[in-house]
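User: Quick sanity check before I run a bigger batch. Here is a single chain. Can you write out its predicted 3D structure?
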Amino acid sequence: MDALRLPEGPLDVLCVGAHPDDVEIGCGGTLLRLAERAELTVTVAVLTGTPERAAESTGALQELVPGAKTHFAGLPDGRLPTHWEAAKEHLEDLARHCRPQLVLTHRVDDAHQDHRTLGVMVTTVWRDALVLHYEIPKWDGDMGAPSHYIGLTREQARRKVDVLNRHFPSQHAHDWWDDEVFLGLMRLRGMECRSPYAEAFHVAKALVEV
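Assistant: Done. Predicted structure follows.
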């Protein structure tokens, strides 16, 4: 399997999530990998969530990528399709000064309405960036066949889960919040790309320079 590589030098990354913990679950390991780069700028935009949940996410993100810039819109959880205009305006405002080379966000076919709305919306706001659509396990059973992978070491995978557990106590009561779920998915994706662990992404469009 030939590996595709991100460009050397400074890299601007934008992560967009519908809820606090989406970015951390969907691409927390990838952020740990990216944090190893010498020149990295990470911006995170989260569209819903209470101040308490935003504080959880901020703490987790600062541990994954120290210095990450965070933006929380505070829109109602589970209602993004009916708040389309406000969500779009928030992202358009951000785009006026945030021009990333790489964007990490939800899948366009995610079963959750908030995730799906953002997955589509983000590609209409940032048209010139490489967009990797991450996956989030859920009871809907909507996992598909990803097109791209980012390999993780065992240490990175377990650190991601440790960060999730320490920074999101509000989510511990959910039956889907489980070390085996998070590690199991990363191990499965790792097997698929011959890595100890991995996070997987869907890419709808990519420019290949030869």
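The CA atoms of residues 166 and 185 lie 20 Å apart.

User: Great, the batch can go ahead then.
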